[in-house]
Amino acid sequence: MNVAVPKFVEPSAIHDIKWIPLKFFNDARGWLVELFRNDLIDPNFHPVMAYISQTKPGVSRGPHEHIDQADYFCFFGPSTFRVYLWDAREKSPTFGKKEVREVGENSPYALIVPAGVVHAYKNVGDKDGLVFNGANRLYAGWLKQDPVDEIRHEKDANTPYQLD
């Protein structure tokens, strides 16, 4: 079953990448933001696990890719992240394309990264930043008994996937 792409999903230079603007609802108590709604994305990308990470200013995570896993990132602050995407899927119509976008505190987005798309992000702000991820596969499989589904390009000094 495929879900129709909502009108507010923004296009990407890379096939199957989805940029979904996040909306904050503010009132006297504070704010609320919906990070995930299963009625808005294809069930193939529905999370089966979730985590949140903190990244310090100037620090990057990645680049890496997954063979089977898709990631559902949410960049909502309190800092700014530069996100890097490279289409490494040989059968993709956008194979070899790269996309870079700044998101976070002033431009909150959810991002669907399908398997085979190399991805990285760097905190380019001046404060610790938070990132939510709802992956569609369990990290290291059921009860963490399987190999981790990652190709870690950041360990290769000669990788073609370089951050600016």
Automatic annotation (TrEMBL):
What reaction is this protein's catalytic activity?
dTDP-4-dehydro-6-deoxy-alpha-D-glucose = dTDP-4-dehydro-beta-L-rhamnose
Q: Which domain of life is it from?
A: Bacteria
Q: Which Pfam families match?
A: dTDP_sugar_isom
As one GO molecular function, the record gives: dTDP-4-dehydrorhamnose 3,5-epimerase activity
GO biological process terms held by the UniProt record: dTDP-rhamnose biosynthetic process; polysaccharide biosynthetic process
Query: Residues at site: Participates in a stacking interaction with the thymidine ring of dTDP-4-oxo-6-deoxyglucose?
Result: Y139
Gene3D superfamilies to which the protein is assigned, alphabetical:
Jelly Rolls (2.60.120.10)
Q: Which SUPFAM superfamilies match?
A: RmlC-like cupins
One GO CC annotation: cytosol
InterPro entries reported for this sequence: RmlC-like, RmlC-like_jellyroll, RmlC_Cupin_sf
EC number, UniProt record? 5.1.3.13
Role according to the record: Catalyzes the epimerization of the C3' and C5'positions of dTDP-6-deoxy-D-xylo-4-hexulose, forming dTDP-6-deoxy-L-lyxo-4-hexulose.
Protein name per Swiss-Prot or TrEMBL: dTDP-4-dehydrorhamnose 3,5-epimerase
Q: Which organism is this protein's natural source?
A: Limnoglobus roseus
